[in-house]
Amino acid sequence: MGSLISNYIVVVSISGVLSVLLGLFAYYKKTDFAGIKPFIYSSFFSAVYTFGFALELSGSTMGEIGFWIKVEYLGMPFIAPSSLIMIMYFVGLERLINKKLLTLLFSIPCISVLLVWTNESHHLFYQSMLFRENAPTPLVDVVMGPWYIVQGSMTFGCMLAGMCLILWQWNRMKRVYRRQMITIFIGQFLPALGAFLYLIDQTPYGMDPVPIIMSITSTLYIWAILSRGMLTAAPIARENLFESMRDGVLVTDRSDMLIDYNRAATEMLEGLDSSAIGHPLAKLFLPAGKEAVDYVMNADPLLSEERELAWNLGGSTCYYQVRSSPVLKKDGSLAGRMIMLIDVTERTLLQEKLQQLATIDSLTGIYNRTFFMEQSRTLLEEASVNQIPLSIILLDIDFFKNINDRYGHQYGDMALQHIVGVCRRHTREGDVFGRYGGEEFVMCLPDTSLQQAALLSEAIRNDIERSAFYTLSGPINVTASFGVAEAGRENISLEELLSEADHALYTSKRNGRNAVHLSSGAAITHFNPL
Predict the structure, then answer these.
(1) Rounded to whole angstroms, how far apart are CA atoms 429 and 419?
(2) Helix axes 369-386, 345-359, angle to 10 degrees
(3) At what angle do helices 400-407 and 409-424 cross, to 10 degrees?
(4) Of 172, 385, 446, 524, which one has the fewest beta carbons inside 10 Å?
(5) From CA 83, how far away is CA 78, in angstroms rounded?
């Protein structure tokens, strides 16, 4: 046996040993990479193939060589499909891996194994096998059968698909992941090139170079696993946890220049695309409005913080919860920061609506009684501390029941809204206006004396009397009665003040309505501005 063949057998055997070691190393390596199993299977099938080929080269008779060729096919047809499945996991396409795909990929290799082991009875895989002339050792040439072409097409198709997937994902992966991608690409390209040279009879003595090449790719894989973190969850994490996150993520360097972002962020920020890489974050946040720009300019990159911002997007206002955290190098120095944008618009609007329901009367749009009491109690305390006057006005629509009975509740609601509209024309900044109950309304007037409150009440009463609200049944005129009280003594409670105003209001009702009466604590008097 020539020294070339002997050396070839040694190298092929070493390739088989490396494949076994690679499979064992991957098996015992703790990793979250979901594609580790097909990688192990690929290494196992490679070992079967290379050991079978080494024994084929050592055979001296057609029977021995034919047997070891059959052994080779227990591994060789399954290598490319297993590698393709591993690559699909690596680039984040595991959602496409299902029983239908696995059946499609592995049914042809299974049929190939069956046909190779039964070839003598049908010759569908090899039409014939004969010894190569002028070879330094017994080497076999084969005449391809129809299924040989099917299996070869399947193998090249899987290898080509794997390489295409890697190239497709190239621009989506960061540089640290590209090293792993290059390793896997080489692991696909070199065997495919060797198989192609073998098929066009461009190898020494027509020998299959793929097992030799596998010693190179196995060594490369082992090196990549040990030094480059290959077959970790990192690429999957970026595709499935970074790119597929519903929340937007931005990564900046120490100068707050954008260096990375995910797909969700492009939907949350105007103008975010690949051209934004390397630009200041403040420029990117500029269309979002003042709050967003202030956040970028004033946030400390060394601190983790969280805040909610109003965000202009496409002419409408959204609300984002912005979480910022520093990105540190291994030595603890600052590398940049990561900013997460969480769309909380729906939650914020719901909170605002709940807040509105808790504070606003739904029919009239003014404060409800509960919130009015809270606000007025605070103003009363401030007035007492600062020794400034504060007055209360209570007003009640006259003969409101008659409106409901005669025209219906719909017109009664319109009357309430009409009164609110008139009163709003007279309220001032700082006044608190609310619905006290039914057809009764209340105003809290800080820094307002009894006389000033009386004049305001008279102006509102006169405006209501002169204003009609228009309906399908024609114009309807309404009037209102008023009671006014001032917090004239120390430590008076809001309830006491409201009680005094209520007594004054009752007096207006009892004395003909459509009038203003004042309570000075000890006496109630009719207010006549003339």
Answers:
(1) 19
(2) 80
(3) 140
(4) 385
(5) 9
268-316 pLDDT per residue, tens: 888 788 777 778 888 888 888 888 888 878 877 777 888 888 888 877 8
Q: State whether residue 299 is helix, strand or coil.
A: coil
What pLDDT, on the 0 to 100 scale, is given for residue 109?
93
Return the residue matching tokens 């057998």: 9
b/e for 490-502, b at 16 or more Cβ within 10 A? eebebeebbebbb
Identify the sign of the CA torsion 13, 15, 17, 23.
Answer: negative
What pLDDT is attached to residue 1? 44
Residue 238 CA to residue 91 CA, distance in Å, equals 10
**Residues contacting residue 4 through CB under 8 Å, at least 6 positions apart:** 136, 204
How far is Cα 190 from Cα 168, in angstroms, rounded to an integer?
19
Residue type, 46: S
Strands (E), 184-257: 248-253
Tokens matching residue 271: 């103008």
pLDDT at 228: 53
Q: How many residues does the chain have?
A: 530
The residue behind tokens 């090249």 is 156
Q: Are 366 and 418 in contact (CB under 8 A)?
A: no
* Token pair recorded at residue 264: 């969700």
Cβ-contact 138, 131 below 8 angstroms: yes
The pLDDT tens digits of the residues spanning 132-188 come to: 776 666 777 778 899 988 988 898 899 899 888 888 877 666 554 666 778 778 878
Q: State which amino acid sits at residue 209.
A: P
Tokens at 138, concatenated: 């017994």
* Beta pairing, strands 248-253 & 140-144: unpaired
**Segment 203-261, tens digit of pLDDT:** 666 667 777 777 777 777 777 666 555 655 444 445 445 556 778 888 888 788 887 78
322 burial level (CB within 10 Å; 0-12, 13-18, 19+): buried
Q: What DSSP designation does 240 have?
A: I
Distance from C-alpha of 444 to C-alpha of 382, rounded to nearest angstrom: 13
Q: How far apart are CA 55 and CA 118, in angstroms?
A: 20
In the three-class reduction of DSSP (H, G, I as helix; E, B as strand; rest coil), residue 161 is classed as: helix
